[in-house]
Write a structure and sequence with these properties.
Layout (H helix, E strand, L loop, with lengths): L18 H15 L10 H8 L3 H13 L3 E3 L5 E3 L4 H24 L4 H16 L4 H18 L3 H9 L2 H8 L5 H19 L3 H28 L1
Antiparallel strand pairs: 1-2
Helix pairs in contact: 1-3, 2-3, 4-6, 4-9, 4-10, 5-6, 5-9, 6-8, 9-10
Protein name: HTH gntR-type domain-containing protein
Organism: Sulfobacillus thermotolerans
InterPro entries: GntR_C, TF_FadR/GntR_C, Tscrpt_reg_HTH_GntR, WH-like_DNA-bd_sf, WH_DNA-bd_sf
Length: 229
């Protein structure tokens, strides 16, 4: 789908149950997956027709997405999927670094459910086996970080990291992360997992923060190189 294409055919009709929440999640995921591209217009009645709902839940979802920074007003074009500036990405990743570190620390300090460790292990195995599409890699990568977040058992941390999900998945979905960085990150995920498993809270926090910081630097460098080209 081209950037200027106003179609959003990746969206499927949804049922009425949990309508408002489902509309929000569907639109948000379409943005994170790259099905709705940066700069693409978001026309309320078109989205409502494609989702098979009224315009009211779509309007509310767009307001929420605007508050998260995923949707912006672009002059006469109206609402569009946000284009992320280098400054916005850097600021978001700096916050993510602190929060991901705290999540890993808390996860290592709480008695863990063996099922959670199994989720982390499965996500690691899937990432390390290779051959995944960007979207498939994103799914298991997200499962890893979301499981660590859940293991932290902190509602506020869960909320704020959840709001920063766009600065984790969107980068991979749009193929902005250098492949060499993805390879290196696999070793970092393994080290974070082992620190959490062994209850090494200081190491867990340090490794998680280093992981996000390294990703931020690699991402910004690639984007800057692209801008200068």
């Amino acid at each position: 789908m081209s950037e200027g294409d106003d179609s959003s055919s990746a969206l499927r009709p949804i049922v009425a149950q949990g309508l408002a929440e489902e509309v929000l999640e569907r639109l948000k995921q379409a943005i994170l997956d790259g099905d709705l591209r940066p700069g693409q217009r978001l026309i309320e009645h078109t989205l409502a027709n494609e989702l098979g709902v009224s315009r009211t839940p779509v309007r509310e979802a767009l307001k929420h997405l605007a508050a998260e920074g995923l949707v912006t007003v672009d002059g006469r074009r109206g609402l569009v999927v946000s284009r992320l500036s280098l400054e916005v990405i850097e600021e978001a990743y700096m916050v993510r670094e602190v929060l991901e570190g705290l999540a890993a620390r808390l996860a290592s300090e709480h008695p863990y459910d063996p099922a959670d460790l199994q989720k982390l292990q499965r996500a690691l195995d899937a990432m390390e086996q290779g051959g995944l599409s960007p979207k498939a890699f994103d799914a298991v990568h997200g499962e890893f970080h979301d499981t660590v977040r859940n293991m932290a058992h902190n509602a506020y941390l869960d909320r704020y990291l959840g709001e920063l999900t766009a600065f984790r998945t969107r980068m991979v979905s749009l193929d902005w992360i250098p492949k060499t960085r993805v390879t290196r990150s696999l070793e970092e995920h393994r080290s974070i997992y082992e620190a959490i498993r062994d209850g090494r809270s200081d190491d867990a926090e340090r490794l998680a923060r280093q992981h996000v910081a390294s990703t931020r630097k690699a991402l910004l460098q690639r984007l800057q190189d692209h801008a200068d080209a």
